[in-house]
Amino acid sequence: MKHAISTVIITFNESKNIQRCIESILSFSDEIVIVDSFSEDETKSICLKHDKVRFFERPFDNYINQKNYANHQAHGAYIFSIDADEVASAPLIQFLENFNPDLYTLYAFHRLNYIGNKAIRYGSWYPDTKIRLWKKNQAEWSGKTPHEILKFDTKLNIKKINFPILHFGYTNIDIVFKKSNFYAKLASKNIALDKSYLSILISMLFSPLIKFFKGFVIKRAFLNGFIGIQIEYCIARETFYKYLNALLLKLKWIPNGNIEN
Predict the structure, then answer these.
(1) Does the predicted model carry a pTM greater than 0.70?
(2) Dihedral (C-alpha) 191, 158, 141, 199: value to the nearest 10 degrees?
(3) CATH homologous superfamily of 5-170
(4) Which of 113, 127, 191, 234 has CA 20 to 30 A from 216's CA?
């Protein structure tokens, strides 16, 4: 018996990516729920060309609320969550076309990140496992900006499926650094509220070094070549700046997290 799958996507100005994403999910999706933040490009018109798409518009407040709103619009028994700059790989498509779920199970998939056309198969970015498939109403998005997490009953099982989601989020390494700056600023505000001065200072001094060593040495990022060094440096740099920013916020030396890094 086929189990209905609602594929859910949130979008804003994704005209360069959304067609590729939709094409990769059409065969297994009974419907495609897209919640858009009033895109200013051709995102809406591209989406509405597809019969399976149910298109909604909602002002963006944060990723958590936007994704939960999108999930609530789904009619299918199961929700598959994917980002507009992601693509279901061929083996993943085949798996979902023949989806036979285990009761009380959430499904996690590896995410293979790309910079341009280069797949990043080592280091902190891989396997980058994400829960992306679950029975409707068994999970919801929670956590803190910028890294939302899926909240669910701990009695539920998580099954890891070795069929990747392909993530084309970065055309070049400069985009990686630019997004890193943005995420550092977002994360620092919650850190400033939740952590003590001493905890922030210790994390600022040691966490970047630990992250770089773990990614570059233990997870063998050096096998990615020079770009592997750049990625791990970027991760360490983001970690340092989010704690530095948080410390300056806590000391009230900068307003609203506006630090240039």
Answers:
(1) yes
(2) -10
(3) Spore Coat Polysaccharide Biosynthesis Protein SpsA; Chain A (3.90.550.10)
(4) 191
